[in-house]
Amino acid sequence: MSTTMGGAKETKNLAGSRAKRRARVAWAFLSPALVVTAFVALYPLVQTLYLSLTNTRLGSEEPARFVGLSNYVELVHDGFFLDALLLTVLFAVLTVILELALGLGIALLLDARFKGRSAMRAAMLVPWAIPTAVSTQMWKWMYNDVYGVFNDILVDRLGLVSEPIAFTADPRTSLAAAVLVDVWKTTPFVALLLLAGLQLIPRELYEAARVDGATRLQAFTRITLPLLRPALLVALVFRTLDALRVFDVFYVMFGSRPDMQTLATYAHEILVSISDVGYGSAVSTAIFLVIAVFIGIYIALFRGREA
């Protein structure tokens, strides 16, 4: 009996030592990647946080001084920053909702079996493959009130409006114009992520639901959506990250127009045009905090649903 217990204990110790040895080997292989990640991501973040606590300004003859939280206090009372924050959050909410809804519909369509499905999947990725600056400039030309294709259709061909609309110049249509560009470009990316999630769902579940008399709507709400939740979370996080730090769409379409500045374009103006590194770093840190709040809310909601 004692011999058996001693052998079992020795086997357990041997397994534990092997696990520790494998863990050390794994960390040894991971350490170069971790060092590179820390240098590329963590160091700039810490440096930006430090600069946000100073009054550093490029080209200034005076040495930089530590000013504490004064830059963040100024942010709270900065009307341009608050307007940029509101515009960025509104843009993110609108684009993420539309892209998730359209992306899910496209993913469900491409998940079905029909002739030409491979060609459809390839064609779907064309908008996403075009560089954002190029696609935005293309849409800006189409929005033009003199030679744009949209005004040609609305005014000359269909007669729905009596005079051309300056989509990018009119404050009433500027945000919608930017939202449409982003939705057109990035919906294929969301559809691709959700399509990958759909293909992981076992077909046997749908067959069993069909045998039990479940309708398509019931199968969608009871099988598809719950099992697609991880892919939805990934798509939601990625698209929110991109939408909250959007720069190229607004910069190409509106330049430095004060009423159409996002947090990223405002930070660019402060850092590059005004050369106020301290205050610009505070704006950049605020972008990071806003993104962290959104991601925290998403994770909490999804964990709550799973529980």
UniProtKB/TrEMBL annotation:
Q: Which is one Gene Ontology cellular component term of this protein?
A: plasma membrane
Q: Which residues cross the membrane?
A: 25-46, 84-110, 122-142, 175-198, 219-238, 279-301
Top-rank lineage group of the source organism: Bacteria
- Per UniProt, residues of the ABC transmembrane type-1 domain are 85-300
Membrane topology value: Multi-pass membrane protein
Q: Which GO terms describe its biological process?
A: transmembrane transport
What the entry lists under SUPFAM superfamilies is as follows: MetI-like
Family assignment from sequence similarity: Belongs to the binding-protein-dependent transport system permease family.
Which protein is depicted?
ABC transporter permease subunit
Organism, by scientific name, is Polyangium spumosum
* UniProt lineage: Bacteria, Pseudomonadati, Myxococcota, Polyangia, Polyangiales
